[in-house]
Write a structure and sequence with these properties.
Structural class: alpha/beta
Shape: rod-shaped
CATH superfamily of the largest domain: Translation initiation factor 3 (IF-3), C-terminal domain
CATH topology of the largest domain: Translation Initiation Factor IF3
CATH class of the largest domain: Alpha Beta
Helix content: 25-40%
Largest sheet: 4 strands, mixed
Strand order of the largest sheet: 2-1-4-3
Radius of gyration: 30 Å
Number of strands: 8
Number of helices: 4
Number of domains: 2
Length: about 180
C-alpha cells in the first residue's frame, strides 16, 4: 500500500474502475495523494503489478462486511447443557430427557453433566449409571459423540442428533409396477 510498493512502474486503475495505464510509481502516488485516496497493490504477481486508487479503510470495512454476510447463513454448532445429580429420581430424569429430545430435534448437540457433591465422587459408578440410562432412553434419537468422562467433581458426555440415512436424496421412491 502507498509508499511500501517497490515496483518502479505499475498498471494503474482509477477509483471508478477505469484503466489509466502503465505509469511510474511516483506519478501513481501523486495521483492518489491528489485525490486523497490510497494506492493499493491488488495484483503483485502481474507484470507490471496492478495497483488501484481507493480508500483502503473503506475497502477493508466492505471486505469484512462481505465476510460476515457469507457466514450469516451458515448454522453454528450449538451445544446445549443439561445438568443432573448422581442421586436424581426417575421422574426428574424423564423430565430432562424431554428437553434433551427437543434439543436433539433442533439439530443441537447436548452435553449431559452429572455433578457430584461432597463425597459422592467416590461413587462415580452412580453417575455412570445415570448417563447410561439416559443414553438407553435416547436410543434412535441421539448418539454418544463423546463417551462419559470424569473431570474433578463432574462427569460428562456429549450427545449428537442421529443422522437419517439417505436424507440427501429428496426424490420420492419409485412405485412398484403391477
Amino acid at each position: 500500500m502507498n509508499r511500501r510498493i517497490r515496483a518502479p512502474e505499475v498498471r494503474l486503475i482509477d477509483e471508478d474502475g477505469s484503466q489509466v495505464g502503465i505509469i511510474n510509481i511516483a506519478a501513481a502516488l501523486a495521483l492518489a495523494d491528489e485525490k486523497g485516496l490510497d494506492l493499493v497493490e491488488v495484483s503483485p504477481n502481474a507484470q507490471p503489478p496492478v495497483c488501484r486508487v481507493m480508500d483502503y479503510g473503506k475497502f477493508l470495512y466492505e471486505q469484512r462486511k462481505r465476510q460476515r454476510e457469507s457466514h450469516k447463513g451458515q448454522p453454528g454448532s450449538v451445544v446445549k447443557e443439561i445438568k443432573v445429580s448422581a442421586k436424581i429420581e426417575e421422574h426428574d430424569v424423564n423430565f430432562k430427557i424431554v428437553h434433551i429430545k427437543k434439543f436433539l430435534a433442533q439439530k443441537n448437540r447436548v452435553k449431559v453433566t452429572v455433578v457430584f457433591r461432597g463425597r459422592e465422587v467416590s461413587h462415580a459408578e452412580l453417575g455412570r449409571k445415570v448417563l447410561d440410562d439416559i443414553v438407553e432412553q435416547l436410543n434412535g434419537v441421539g448418539v454418544v459423540e463423546t463417551e462419559p468422562r470424569l473431570e474433578g467433581k463432574t462427569m460428562w458426555m456429549l450427545l449428537a442428533p442421529v443422522k437419517k440415512p439417505g436424507k440427501s436424496d429428496d426424490r420420492p421412491a419409485a412405485k412398484p409396477e403391477g
